[in-house]
Amino acid sequence: MSALLTLTRPDDWHLHLRDGAALVSVVPHSARQFARALVMPNLKPPVTTTAQAQAYRERILEALPADADFQPWMSLYLTDTTPAAEIERAAASGVVLAVKLYPAGATTNSQAGVTDLRRCRGALEAMERLGMPLCVHGEVTDPEVDVFDREKVFIERVLIPLRRAFPGLRVVFEHITTQEAADYVRQAEGEIAATITAHHLLYNRNAIFQGGLRPHWYCLPVLKRERHRSALLQAATSGNPRFFLGTDSAPHARDDKESACGCAGCYTALHAMELYAEAFDAAGALDRLEGFASHFGADFYRLPRNAGRITLQRAEQVIPASLPFGGRELVPLAAGETLGWRFVG
Ligand code: NCD
Ligand code: ZN
């Protein structure tokens, strides 16, 4: 096996960059490896309008290192009151690529999310008409539903009825974590795709509890049991273009994670491609990494594939114990552990 792996430059179709000093700390990590990213809108307050998305995009561009070659694509945060006219503005803007559905209360900064999709009819009709994809955080928030079942129940209660009501709506099922989600995306009719994170390919839920409670392995949707991890790995390495890369790298300051009520989110942007390479390598499927990381997402979003290339080298490196995060500290996923791959450039 060659010690070097060269691929078309990849894109990250699900990324949290935050804002202000935190943004300045993390955006160089994504810009080093990826040509483009779809930036999530769950700021405080959320990015609900095209004007806010344009202003956030300018802040991201300003935060980039001078030599960076990185294009942020923006997403709008869907609310109960998003008007169809806002979707039309977004589609015409040239900077907004998708709209994000956060069920209210499902995850970090989702308080302003959708309480009932029936309230979003006008916006969803406009999206269906304009070909604007809806990216979904696919978990129900019903407290009666076990946290490990929330994605599976979302498919039955929300996703299937939504796609029946809007059959032309283009949907991305974000950061899928279960066999049921992978099966649904593989078999469903119409335009649907899914992103898969590196951490859901590498770890099952035991990682959260190994030797004690490990908050840096806690994210939403939460890691699931091994049967699901192996189904996701099978989907990601299958060559099916409905499955593509989205890191869901979600930085939180160390003290917000190592807390009595720790925030959800794993930080993977610094070594994203090395982590995916580990997962694909373990599955004997390194030849499938390029499609997943560099082709299928661009194709779904109807954007050209990137012209540049990157190289990964089979060489060990240790993930740092912590990183600067504004004036605070950020602990990357698997801090202190050794990776078998290294991003060369
Ligand atoms: C994300 C965050 O911190 O913004 N957290 C996470 O656990 N993935 C939000 C999200 O994508 O659910
Ligand atoms: Zn996310």
Shape: globular
Structural class assignment: alpha/beta
CATH topology: TIM Barrel
Overall number of domains: 1
The CATH superfamily title: Metal-dependent hydrolases
Distance between the termini: 20 Å
Radius of gyration: 19 Å
CATH architectural group: Alpha-Beta Barrel
Can you describe what's shown?
The chain is an alpha/beta fold. The protein has one domain: TIM Barrel (Alpha-Beta Barrel), CATH 3.20.20.140. The protein contains twelve helices and 13 strands. The strands form three sheets. Strands 2-3-4-5-6-7-8-9 form an eight-stranded parallel sheet. A three-stranded antiparallel sheet has the order 1-10-13. Strand 6 (134-136), helix 5 and strand 7 (171-173) form a beta-alpha-beta unit. Helix 3 (84-93) packs parallel to helix 4 and helix 6 (179-187) packs parallel to helix 9. The mean pLDDT is 97.
Element layout with pairings:
Blueprint: E1 4-8, E2 11-15, H1 20-33, E3 36-39, H2 50-63, E4 71-77, H3 84-93, E5 96-101, H4 121-130, E6 134-136, H5 150-165, E7 171-173, H6 179-187, E8 192-196, H7 198-202, H8 206-209, H9 226-236, E9 243-245, H10 254-257, H11 272-282, H12 289-300, E10 309-318, E11 323-325, E12 328-330, E13 338-343
Parallel strand pairs: 2-3, 3-4, 4-5, 5-6, 6-7, 7-8, 8-9
Antiparallel strand pairs: 1-10, 10-13, 11-12
Helix pairs in contact: 3-4, 6-9
The site of N-carbamoyl-L-aspartate has 11 residues, from loops.
